[in-house]
Amino acid sequence: MGLRRVLLLGEGNFSFAASLCGAEGTHVVATCYESEEDASRRGGAARSIRRLRDSGAEVVFSVDCTKLKDYFSPEKREFDCIYFNFPHCGRKAGVVKNRELLAHFFRSSAEVLAEEGEVHVALCNGQGGTPMDQPRREWHNSWQIVAVAAGAGFILSNVHPFNAETIHGYKCTGYRSQDKSFCVEGALNHIFTRSTPLLCFTPRSCKIQLESQKVSFQVPQVLVDKINRSFLEPNSNHPVQTVKEELTARLSQAFPLQDTDSCLPLLHHGHLDGVCPSNIFWITLSPEETPSTEEMSHGPAHAVLFSRVDFCQGTEKNVAKGCHSPGQFYLRPSLLPYAQARMQGAFLPGTLHVLSGPVFRKCRISPHSMPVFHEVLLAFAGNRGTESSCVQVLVNNIASTIHSLHQTGIKPNINLQEATSSETTELNDFAAFESQLGKIQYFIFMDTDPPGSCEKGSCLGVIRTSHELVSSELVLIFASLNLDLLAMLLCEISDWRMLWTPDPRFLRQFPRGQLRLFKSFSLYPPSYVHDVSFWVPEGEQFDEVAFHTLARGVSGEMVVSIQLRDSFQQAGTGRRSLCYRLTFQSCDRALSCRGAAEMQLRLREEIQRQLGVTLR
């Protein structure tokens, strides 16, 4: 392994650089904006410069932090760490000029930083504008460092106090033209790392073999980065797979278990009674092959549930209205039909059948609403009259698994609540959709803080029973669990989108077969608010789920909130006007103000084109 290259910018008396020189395996490059003659006049600077040079460090003068690549040849631009302590334009420069300085600095740093390098920026208390500043300034009066860094593709990965007293020999000087030192009490060191790129919006198609035909379909835009992610593969270290493995291992101690990990069909065909069409991802199959298609990893033999092909056309607007063909295919919204079909065939009473895989549902945007998640469905056939005891055994084993996996050491309370029609309106989207699939006997809740409360996000699963699918002596029990939500609660992952991040720093926190409390690598991400207003055609019902789904797809899941701000009907025309407020925020990537504005413009174009509204 080569030397760790460290670049220091804006040094005053070079005392900070001198404290780092001599560290084993580190090569220090210390720079300042001033000339050597001017810098040497600072108290103690000449002594620190000699010490640096004697230790083999490089000392470079007259370096502009906004043009770093001009000072280093290409082979010497890969710095592992860049330090910039207390940057300032000098004199009485305001927050706007200092933001501009930081913006140019971050863009310049991106050109000389190693791929997995860090940028350290120390700021006085209050300047950064993060919740770590105490007291915290108003946003407009801060340097907005996280938002500024996002413009250059950086995310804030850590922040901690800048303890000047612990740095041997360090003495803070001040503005480059003054000897007045900065106030370092309460100062913070902000550590930035590179972000993975924002989602590419290139359309993606999947190709499948259907009988003797090769057919393809275009993946819905909101799902382009979520198809075939293989989270539940046997060698996966994703926390969703770990939760599933631990759950099935525990259940195998109470029941003979048959785990069905074979490739289940990704597409359904036909009607789902009671399910709202706007909650379904409808798919149009095409017999034409295109150069951009790629084989689905699910395998050609299991690509669809039924063999009959109906090629049908339709616009997003028609689908949003529910105008779909009975022969149209759709991405599976549930594993329940597969479990029901299996239990109607050959099965062993008393055996617990386990089915798992991703399912797809259109839903409104909220912290716990997922357009795709991994479902595990448990199916069991028992003797009539024993369903209550069988359900209790299932729930007890689920609860004991959750208790053993919970990372805080506090055992959460698992509640089994009987379902009533009045409750369904207060449930999260997972449970509300399950209610559309058929009658539910019980909801499975995991209590969250405060203890004893059942918030919308804590409904982990549902249990339903059936007496019609098998013989009169048996009863079928189906338990459906949301593995993604369970993994979030166990590992304290606050945002479901983090489960799908392509950033390798997420999976590095979860060694194979282990669950740990998640530590975010993107702290205090900035948010941006935009409004959009439009006219809805007279007599038409506006489909909010279609609007939310479109916002998800256009933004690459960067919209975290959509709120209706205003609604009125125009006299005379009968047209209705709606105004929505959208909040853009990323959980894992750098999202700049400009990037959010570009997403808003694309969304305005698409809602007019796909939803048939007229922009105001």
TrEMBL record:
The keyword Cell division does not apply. Pfam families: BMT5-like, FDX-ACB. The gene is Fdxacb1. It comes from Tachuris rubrigastra. InterPro entries: aa-tRNA-synth_II/BPL/LPL (IPR045864), BMT5-like (IPR019446), Fdx_antiC-bd (IPR005121), Fdx_antiC-bd_sf (IPR036690), SAM-dependent_MTases_sf (IPR029063). GO terms for biological process: rRNA base methylation; translation. GO terms for molecular function: ATP binding; phenylalanine-tRNA ligase activity; rRNA (uridine-N3-)-methyltransferase activity. One of its GO terms (cellular component) is mitochondrial matrix. The keyword DNA repair does not apply. It comes from the Eukaryota. This is phenylalanine--tRNA ligase. It catalyses: tRNA(Phe) + L-phenylalanine + ATP = L-phenylalanyl-tRNA(Phe) + AMP + diphosphate + H(+). Residues 523-616 form the FDX-ACB domain. Belongs to the class-II aminoacyl-tRNA synthetase family. Its EC number is 6.1.1.20. It is an enzyme of class 6 (ligase). Keywords: Aminoacyl-tRNA synthetase, ATP-binding, Ligase, Mitochondrion, Nucleotide-binding, Protein biosynthesis, Transit peptide. It is found in: Mitochondrion matrix.
